[in-house]
Design brief:
By secondary structure, this protein is an alpha/beta fold. It folds into 2 domains: about 350 residues, Rossmann fold, CATH 3.40.50; about 90 residues, Arc Repressor Mutant, subunit A (Orthogonal Bundle), CATH 1.10.10. It contains 17 helices and 12 strands. The strands form 4 sheets. Strands 4-5-8-3-9 form a 5-stranded parallel β-sheet, with helices on both faces. Strands 2-1-10 form a 3-stranded mixed β-sheet. The chain has a two-stranded antiparallel ribbon with strand order 6-7. Helix 3 packs across helix 9.
Length: about 475
């Protein structure tokens, strides 16, 4: 049994938002809170950051997956209301900017119009039908970041599991400072995309029966699902009809989001972000971090992979909620310099709460240890992914189709190809593919020498020389950033 949300421990803005939402929808409080927190993260975007425990820049993007029965769980109603509470004023502000810019554009002489691109509406939301390619194109037009909201995520999961290369690329968007690639797959059209500090939050909901149909055990170990907060809601909502006599008035919540956007527009940029230092909370966070590692040291690998995301997630939650509370309470923004201990306590509380929900979900899924242990044996996906990399790298700049690789790489088969290739492309970003120019339904896989930095090439060949005895099975993942 997962614990109930303690709204006294989530900051002023979130507490009041949950309380107001509950007047109109009797949804699970944790679902309301997670939906709001995820959308709030996209308001901050890539113009706000703090630091991780390794002193790397940590941006506040959040990926959340809500699982509840259709209809009775009120997933869509909750997402729609929380979106309205947090973003409506911001979307109106963006529409006004676009209207004014378009009016000025129309006044230009014809020759100047031909030399200048027409204005684009700033994007914050990427809608239900977005494919991976659609998300990337939207990110190009939203340099400060955006959120993809799926009130039914089944189709997204299905598409990603059929398009493993783009699934790996989506996974990498979670914590990459730069995205540069030719769009591939359905409707990709080979468009070249370059995005500095891509920022994507995801808020997705689905039915538990559909989730069972679309996920694979490997999703829990490959790095895809462990990026998500997972809420598996078992309590059915009690529907309300005209129980609240007052009309909805969410202006105070919308105002905070709008004030944050206007402040960031005026003072900060991607290159000059609002940065909250960690000096006040480092000792506290470090002690908690060590405690959690000890607590989970005997847990399964897939549980620990979720834990590691929540350990850094605690800093994100603290950052988002502190910034929002400063604006919501009317505090002096000029004093917003460092993460405060009381907000670190909130971040820690939420990270521990989310871990309890994640563990309950995995237990409910009944994925027995044997399935996870099977991934660790000598023919594991991890091992096969290494073999794919080694095979392609020894034949750099050569092209191979699926059958070539299955015929020449031991233990790589049609049945595990998609899973192994997805893992290989995530672990070794230099692996790429092109759709066949003939239009046939297969892809050409390769490592192009131009994809490798000089240092990478030098390190690789030095390593090869030192490990000639067994090059096929060696793991060279340490040569490249994860």
């Amino acid at each position: 049994m997962t614990p109930a949300l303690n709204t006294e421990k989530i900051g002023y803005y979130l507490k009041d938002l949950v309380d107001d939402a509950k007047k109109f929808i009797d949804s699970d409080e944790t679902m309301i809170m997670v939906s709001a927190l995820t959308i709030m993260s996209s308001i901050l975007g890539n113009r706000v950051h703090t630091y991780s425990g390794t002193r790397s820049k940590l941006y506040p993007n959040i990926w959340s997956l809500i699982i509840a029965k259709s209809g009775l769980g009120t997933k869509s109603t909750t997402l729609n209301m929380v979106e309205k509470m947090t973003t409506q004023a911001v979307l109106g502000y963006y529409a006004t900017i676009y209207k004014n810019e378009m009016a000025e554009y129309k006044k230009l002489p014809k020759n100047e119009k031909n030399e200048k691109a027409p204005p684009r509406m700033r994007q914050l939301l990427s809608g239900q039908g977005s494919t991976f390619q659609g998300i990337i194109k939207s990110l190009q037009n939203s340099k400060y970041g955006m959120i993809a909201i799926y009130d039914e995520a089944r189709e997204l999961l299905r598409k990603l599991n059929k398009d493993v290369e783009n699934k790996a690329s989506l996974t990498s968007l979670y914590d990459k400072d730069y995205y540069g690639k030719d769009l591939v797959g359905a409707h990709g059209n080979g468009i070249s995309v370059n995005i500095n500090k891509p920022f994507l939050s995801i808020l997705a909901a689905t039915n538990p029966d559909w989730l069972h149909d679309e996920i694979k055990t490997a999703d829990y170990t490959s790095g895809f699902f462990n990026r998500f907060i997972i809420l598996d809601i078992n309590i059915y909502a009690k529907l309300k009809a005209f129980k609240e006599t007052k009309k909805q008035n969410f202006e105070k919540f919308q105002k905070s989001s709008l004030e944050i956007i206007k402040y960031l527009d005026k003072v900060h940029s991607v290159e000059n972000p609002l940065t909250l230092d960690t000096a006040l909370i480092e000792a506290m966070y470090s002690d908690w971090f060590d405690e959690k590692l000890r607590q989970y040291e005997d847990s399964e690998d897939h549980i620990r992979s979720f834990l590691l995301r929540q350990l850094s997630g605690a800093l994100k939650y603290a950052l988002i909620i502190q910034v929002y509370d400063y604006f919501y309470l009317g505090k002096d923004i000029n004093t917003l310099k460092t993460l405060e201990i009381k907000y670190m306590e909130i971040g820690i509380y939420l990270a521990e709460l989310f871990m309890k929900h994640i563990e309950a979900h995995i237990e409910k899924m009944n994925l027995d240890d044997g399935e996870f242990e099977a991934l660790k044996d000598k023919n594991s996906i991890e091992n096969i992914a290494n073999k794919i990399y080694n095979y392609l790298h020894k034949r750099i700049d050569d092209d191979f189709i699926r059958s070539d690789l299955c015929n020449n790489i031991r233990n790589l088969k049609a049945s595990n190809f998609d899973e192994a290739m997805e893992h290989a492309m995530k672990k070794y970003p230099c692996i790429t593919y092109d759709k066949s120019v003939s239009g046939r339904n297969f892809h050409i896989y390769h490592i192009l020498s131009e994809n490798l930095q000089p240092k990478e090439r030098e390190e690789f060949f030095s390593y090869i020389e030192a490990q000639e005895e067994d090059p096929e099975n060696m793991d060279i993942s340490g040569l490249f950033e994860d």
